[in-house]
Amino acid sequence: MRKYSIPEPATEFGMYMKKSFFFFSILFLLMGCMPHSVDTSAPKETETIAVPALTAPVTTTSTMDIQTPPAEGCIQLTLDKDHGVTSDGFLIARNSKVDYLFLNIKSKKTTGIGPHNETIYGYIVSPNKKLMFTDACLGDHCYYILRTIDQVVNTFPTHNDWYPWGWLDNERIIILTRLEPHDVVILNPFTGTETTIHLDLSNPHINIQTDTESLIPTSLDSSLERVFYYDEKNGGRLVLWDINNRKEISTLAFVVPADETVGYGLASGWSPNGKKLVTVSPNNHNDIPNELYELDVDGNVVQLSKFNQKYQFANVSVPAWNPDGRNIGFFLRFGNAPVTNWHDLEQRLAILDTETLAVKSYCLPEKITFLPASWITWSPDGQQLAVTAKLSNGKVKPILIDVVRKVISIIETPQNMVVEDWMAP
Description:
The protein is 2% helix and 42% strand. It is built from 2 helices and 35 strands.
């Protein structure tokens, strides 16, 4: 899912959208799509599903046995100077002018995402990496665009209160609404068919945008029977909620400060098959997210990591599912406690096998560092990862990581550029 989540300028690259649900917390300042005055009378089919208020008792969290993953060493990545970049596809990147661009991995050429040089306010990429849904404006004319790399598939008038949030699967999009009662709209972008779901959640966190507009960030599973959200009233909890039976399935502790907002992580945690969800939660000696947890659709919880037993302080951030639905890539930061400067922590790229709980961590060549709080995105075939790195000369470039060959390839773009996603050709 990209990029209607909540950006915050990165200190090392001013235009950079900081993703940190799995870093300091799931906290963001909502950017959203700019309100547009357009005709929204396009024909559509609408079905409304009413969900009554909570009447069922709350169930307690069921917890499976927690295993300790093997201690991981640092696998040294080397710079691939001989073969260069050989991968197919296009990265979605942003330059120093905050333009969204397609970056051809082989040719290193960039093109604008808007087919007619529209201004792009945000986008979300389908799970199969073949489709993009964007919010675009050409002058005063604003609309949504469904497109592949090569062509426009469909267009829709912009809805002022819509906030495209993520893809439910390769055929449906989740739309959050900015106005009360904050219904969720499930949109088929091929036909324009809408299904409206009314959620009557208990104490949901509300992201305030304006005096009249706000959002309730949620994440629905593909069956539309469960929703994951943040309950800010009961000491701070992440809640997996049964929509049909109107009750909690499972909860995890999580505290968001009153002046912060909940963002991207709620939309990104479901596995490719929709049967489990990965998130972060504090362990028993820190109040920030620093361990990985997995929840299945029945509410069973597995603690995937115990890094804070190995290091004085550890923190995981931006976990991303491999398309295989088994492995998760994420950034691991660790160091001495208490933490007085996040830049003093060592940062590695790590991959966790959710079946064996084995962890492999990777270190970059000397004088190349991961850009703080950057995205991790897998290639469509799940064989490589793309991240953003800061080079020894201070430039910021996308890099590809081949974990099989244990090499990295730098994409030498003419200007500083941050990678955010990967689309299939």
